[in-house]
């Protein structure tokens, strides 16, 4: 469940980091530039995700760090770590010292891979700057899916006007539930080697390997 909730947010954090203009055309241009820039330079950020269903009183929280370079990524949380090198994915669970190895399908990547989700939202959503959320420090951008059948009905993105860094993303589902992603310590244009995105079993003594490929 973490994957399906966290990754859609995480990919959007990289989607909006350079948006300054006040039109949907400029927003789409910024996305194209972003897709090009992360092919060679990595982005790393700390995150906190708070989720709540429509009639629930308790909010579920999860936090960690996320690193992405092109279609590669590393997700690091207390309960698990996920590595993806563009072909193979390793999901390591700390509680039982076990790693599962898979080669995700296109459909699975659309639910877990930030770049795949980014491409999907880029073609299926309308972009606009919101007049409902005013801020002297941040821009507020709304993404609304063109098709009503989508589970997501609206995404609200807060971007710092000075740094162009993402501050937060709020996602609203058609069932009335919502999730809020807040980013801190946002770092971009990092030089990170490709082997960072590959699980190194030598670092985990007696790790149980579950190869599902």
Q: Report the β-strand fraction as a percent range.
A: 35-45%
List the secondary-structure elements in sequence, H or E: HHEEEEEEHHEEEEEE
* Quaternary assembly: single chain
Structural class call reads alpha+beta
Unreliable stretches (pLDDT < 50, length at least 5) are none
CATH architectural grouping: Clam
- Going across the major beta sheet, what is the strand order? 7-8-9-10-11-1-2-3-4-5-6-12
Shape: globular
Number of helices: 4
Biggest sheet, in brief? 12 strands, mixed
Compute the separation of the termini in Å: 21 Å
Q: Give the class-level CATH name.
A: Mainly Beta
Number of domains: 1
- Over the alpha carbons, how many angstroms does the gyration radius reach? 17 Å
Q: What is the CATH superfamily?
A: Lipoprotein localisation LolA/LolB/LppX
| Fraction of residues in helix | 10-25%
Q: Give the averaged pLDDT, no decimals.
A: 78
Record field, number of beta strands: 12
CATH topology: outer membrane lipoprotein receptor (LolB), chain A
Walk me through the topology.
Blueprint: H1 2-15, H2 24-37, E1 42-52, E2 60-69, E3 72-76, E4 80-84, E5 89-93, E6 98-102, H3 106-112, H4 114-124, E7 125-129, E8 138-145, E9 152-160, E10 166-173, E11 178-190, E12 208-211
Parallel strand pairs: 6-12
Antiparallel strand pairs: 1-2, 1-11, 2-3, 3-4, 4-5, 5-6, 7-8, 8-9, 9-10, 10-11
Helix pairs in contact: 1-4, 3-4
Descriptive report:
- With 213 residues, the protein is α+β, with helices and mostly antiparallel strands.
- The protein has helices at 2-15, 24-37, 106-112, 114-124; strands at residues 42-52, 60-69, 72-76, 80-84, 89-93, 98-102, 125-129, 138-145, 152-160, 166-173, 178-190, 208-211.
- Strand 1 (42-52) and strand 2 form a beta hairpin.
